[in-house]
Predict the 3D structure of the following.
Amino acid sequence: MVLSRRSVVYMLLVSVLVLILSPFAWLAITAFKDASELRAVPIHWWPHHPSPGNFVKALTSWDYFGYARNSLTIATIYAVLATFASAWAGYGFARLEAPGKRVIFGVLLSTMMLPQVMTLVPTYLLFAKFHLINTYMPWVLWGLCGMPYLIFLFRQFFTNMPKELEEAAIVDGCGQMRIFWRIFLPQSWPVIATSLILSFSWTWGDWLAPALLLDTGRTTLAVQLATGYHNAHGGTLNNLVAAGTLVYVVPVLVLFLILQRGFVSGIATSGLK
Amino acid sequence: MSTGHLTVAAGPAVQSPAGAPATRPPRRRRSLATRRAWAFYAFAGPWVLGFLALTAYPLGYALWLSFTNSDGLSDNSRFVGLDNYKEVFSDPETLASLARTGVFTAMTVPLTIVAGLFLAVLVNQPIRGRGLIRTLLYLPAVVPPVGAAITFRMIFDRDSGAANGLLDLFNVNGLAWLADPYARWVLIVLTLWGVGNVMIISLAGLQDIPKELHEAARVDGASPWQSFTRITLPLLSPVIFFQVVTGIIASLQTFVPLLISLDPTPKGIGSVPESNSLFMIHVLDQYLLGGRYGYASALLWVLFLIIIAVTLIVFKLSKGAVFYSVEPERAKTKSRTIGGG
């Protein structure tokens, strides 16, 4: 009885794993096919003449690394600033009391429901007024404000920390800033890791904001990738798109795999209630 | 208190509330309270400022735009009253895209939640390598939307895609998946691919449920299914509810169809097949292709109000179905006392 149940679990898991991982496999297979194999009938399930040259072409047919640098710059700026700013605000919501706090927290929670696009286009007009279009300043500003979802994660984590930590520090004459900086922040590395991964990969993957705010030359890989590879007749070169996409996706996956231990426990300890 | 004798003062001060003179602690507490209040404003301040400048102001600006015929750039826009809103409810494309978005939401939200919960239960079993399995199942949720969209464009490509390759194995003619009417299935499959997100949150919820409850149920003769429906589901209901709300909000505003249909001409929005023309595609169409900022702002405000209304309805409907009263911590101590006695 127990054995059969366990084998059912394994069988289900294996089939789900195959289903979920197969898109990655197909992306990789496509990336290694040469142009003639792409049109093969019936379809080749495995590249007969694996051509790693696709990757060279994908990375050199336009300034791939330049766009990657743009993405990296924006994502790093935003991830670092937003993580710090969210921890900062999260600490206030978790450990301090003040008139109006509940109202402000209610507003914070309700902004999580707000469609991103809702504010993006009017914000675009606002940034245009201040000549911030085609600069990275919008990401600096967005980062400095923190992000409601991340503030909420930090707040949940800080709320669950023992009160004695803070009381001892207050008695020792520590100000709130030092308590935050010296005691709470160093303890919160799982949430910091979660926050860094989430905000980095959101910005790295964001299409709409850079498509609206940045010109073709300064934009990110996310924008350029989908439209960058085509032949003289305007046809899309799928094998190059696949190769370019793999190189674009892999850093995020690696980042996740390195930090995932902290990441998962960050989500778990912050509990979503 | 001076900062001079920090460590010396530390010992007695902790115990002082019990035996200290009556006048001093309240004064100290009050000054501490005001200091904490100011500290709170210092900590919450950056977000509040950012909210006012980058969320509240743009929202208000969009509301104002929605009463004008602005094209966003030139200055000769004028006030048109409720014209834009009247157009929203008479524009057939708006109503059709709204209906498509509703169908998409009604299909994908329950599917992802049920599938995610199912996977969470599976990877919560005591099996070998479950850490690795969890990570692998979560992986697609980390893939940037553009990357995911391109990947599925490859799979469902008419000539070189794996989907038609599979059909060919069964001697079925290939379909033009990325065109009408099949494109909507590509979108749904793509959405389901990110099920790991729901799985990981549900898993965290499952692990919060004290094991003793299930053990007690088993001792009392409950079947695994009874234990799941009577203990797991009720205790998990806040987590499920949270995901219903966030899932609905996310899918009402998705513009992923645009990413699937991006063509070599930059900002090519016109290429989204009709069956995938969700509400947000229509909005972006008006903004980017039509340059109709006033009308698009009205569309966005309507969507915003729909989101608020749907959320309120879900909250209303969930009353009685979601159990917030049982805190995991309290349940843990409770079951321990039961076990001990």
Q: What stands out?
A: Chain A touches chain B through 102 residues (CB under 8 Å).
